[in-house]
Amino acid sequence: MSVRKRPGTTLSNPETRAVVYTPPEGEGLLNDLLHNLEVFLHAQDGLDPLVKAAVLHYQFEAIHPYHDGNGRTGRILIILYLVERGVLKLPVLYLSRYLIEHRAEYYRLLRQVTESGAWEPWILYMLTALEETATQTTQRIYGIRNLLDTSCAHARKALPARAYSKELVELVFFQPYTKIQFLVENHMAERKTAAKYLQMLAEIGILKSVKMGKERVFVNPKLVSLLRR
Question: CB–CB of 190/184 below 8 Å?
Answer without folding.
Answer: yes
